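Milestone 3.1: sequence recovery, worked example.
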């Protein structure tokens, strides 16, 4: 039975609640990095993995979970995913070690992966094509606003209640979404049985996992041995080979491939996915160095840093509403350009002694850019999708963003760690010139060692040998703070270049998106059963 329009809109609210949590948790951790570092006595690489493992676990199964919705019904897969997500959120909030938190975030990512494709699948089925524009605009606005408000909400929660509450917040939101979803979401069931591409899923998941592991942990292992004879280059090489094998296998599959290559026969769908990947890369990549910079260098607390990002969130929300009514590839290209311009402005203005409010114009420009992209890009990618491929297409479209996000997190984290290993020692040598010569090398070594541990975020600075005089010790701590501030600022500025380069590539991809009228050919909707 087809849902009434009113029930469809109520159901959309439940879908948006689920999607809001998924997108929120992709960025909310960034503002809590300093608190998690000190609270769990973790190092920078471990905390980067707290974010990256969620993105990775949310990405790898997306192609499969999209097909699970096609086989068992999107409602059932979404509800199971939501329950897993909420249970893992509780686990995250109760974690007492970095390892436990990383494991919980991996499970949370799996739950998110089960939910995400179903949200877009439901929209394409709850609303006919001629009435789908506004719901997709709402869905896209939720994506943009949730991505930006993650640091804002996270800062408030960390300051007032502790970092654990950035995860516990999901429980009341998810509970409401669960009840509304059970009542109002129709239980569509497919007419036929869909065969899973097990080999394709294995190739895609292991290949992507190996690639991201190698990129993110390269600096941690000094680009050498990981275990036994296996080194970082081997892991990355295996990942690339497996992904290449996945592409070849999909081209050979003729019966229910994991990624139906017919989807990419439409150039708009192909270019929209490339653009989506670039957007995910840039948004995830810019937040990591930015949030650590404003807290550890500029000295803002979690609430202050979240308030600094508030204008960005407001701008993104306002732009998303406007974009949902306008649409078009020029708007997408303009949004990507604005995000790149805002990022460049932030990098140009960032200095160890920059007044935080000076960064607001760049943040607002970036927020407008993010808000302009999501809705028209989603509308372009999903217009005219064949009914029997909706789940697969939704999985592919969301996978493209998540793959971009995973690679953005991994490569940005890598560049940041490499940058710190170079810029912090150099800054330490510059600031050590005012010390007596016999203290210089020891000072540089201790500051450099502190640059990859939780001590870099503590006001006390690196440990000073007990036989140093109190006056020298105090001077060393002051100089260490200056050295870290200068070194991290230089590393962050260099790291922000990468998201800008990727956004330029995204603009080129967006230029290939065609008007929606060109997508409406050869629609092949297959009837399905829907139980209330």
């Amino acid at each position: 039975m087809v849902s009434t329009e009113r029930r469809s809109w109520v159901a959309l609210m439940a879908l948006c609640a689920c999607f809001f949590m998924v997108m929120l948790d992709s960025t909310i951790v960034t503002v809590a990095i300093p608190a998690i570092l000190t609270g769990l006595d973790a190092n920078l690489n471990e905390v980067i993995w707290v974010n990256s493992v969620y993105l990775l676990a949310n990405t790898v199964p997306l192609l499969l979970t999209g097909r699970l919705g096609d086989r068992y019904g999107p409602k059932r897969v979404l509800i199971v995913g939501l329950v897993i997500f909420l249970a893992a959120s509780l686990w995250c909030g109760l974690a007492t070690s970095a390892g436990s938190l990383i494991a919980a975030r991996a499970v949370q990512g799996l739950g998110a992966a089960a939910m995400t494709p179903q949200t877009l699948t439901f929209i394409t089925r709850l609303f006919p094509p001629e009435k789908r524009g506004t719901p997709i605009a709402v869905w896209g606005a939720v994506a943009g606003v949730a991505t930006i408000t993650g640091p804002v909400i996270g800062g408030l929660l960390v300051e007032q209640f502790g970092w654990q509450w950035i995860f516990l917040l999901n429980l009341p939101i998810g509970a409401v979404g669960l009840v509304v979803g059970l009542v109002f979401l129709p239980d569509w069931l497919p007419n036929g049985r869909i065969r899973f591409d097990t080999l394709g899923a294995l190739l895609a998941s292991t290949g992507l996992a190996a690639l991201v592991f190698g990129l993110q942990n390269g600096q941690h292992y000094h680009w050498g041995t990981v275990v036994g004879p296996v080194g970082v280059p081997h892991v990355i090489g295996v990942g690339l080979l497996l992904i290449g094998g996945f592409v070849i296998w999909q081209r050979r599959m003729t019966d229910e491939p994991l990624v139906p290559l017919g989807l990419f026969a439409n150039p708009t769908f192909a270019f929209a996915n490339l653009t989506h990947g670039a957007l995910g890369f840039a948004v995830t990549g810019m937040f990591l160095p930015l949030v650590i910079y404003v807290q550890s260098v500029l000295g803002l607390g979690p609430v202050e840093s979240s308030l600094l990002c508030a204008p960005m969130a407001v701008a993104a929300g306002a732009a998303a509403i406007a974009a949902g009514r306008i649409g078009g590839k020029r708007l997408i290209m303009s949004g990507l350009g604005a995000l790149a311009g805002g990022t460049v402005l932030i990098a140009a203005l960032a200095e160890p002694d920059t007044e935080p409010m000076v960064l607001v114009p760049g943040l607002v420009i970036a927020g407008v850019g993010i808000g302009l992209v999501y809705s028209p890009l989603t509308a372009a990618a999903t217009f005219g999708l064949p009914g029997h491929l909706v789940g697969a297409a939704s999985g592919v479209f969301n996978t493209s963003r998540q793959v971009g996000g995973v690679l953005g997190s991994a490569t940005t984290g890598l560049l940041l760690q490499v940058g710190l290993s170079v810029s912090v020692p150099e800054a330490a040598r510059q600031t050590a010139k005012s010390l007596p010569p016999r203290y210089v090398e020891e000072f540089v070594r201790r500051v450099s060692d502190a640059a990859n541990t939780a001590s870099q975020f503590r006001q006390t600075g690196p440990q000073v040998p007990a036989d140093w005089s109190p006056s020298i010790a105090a001077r060393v701590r002051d100089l260490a703070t200056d050295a870290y501030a200068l070194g991290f600022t230089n590393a962050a500025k260099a790291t922000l270049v990468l998201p800008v380069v990727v956004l330029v590539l995204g603009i080129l991809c967006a230029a290939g998106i065609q008007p929606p009228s060109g997508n409406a050919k050869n629609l092949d909707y297959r009837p399905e059963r829907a139980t209330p």
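The CA atoms of residues 275 and 506 lie 5 Å apart. The first strand starts at residue 187 and ends at 189.
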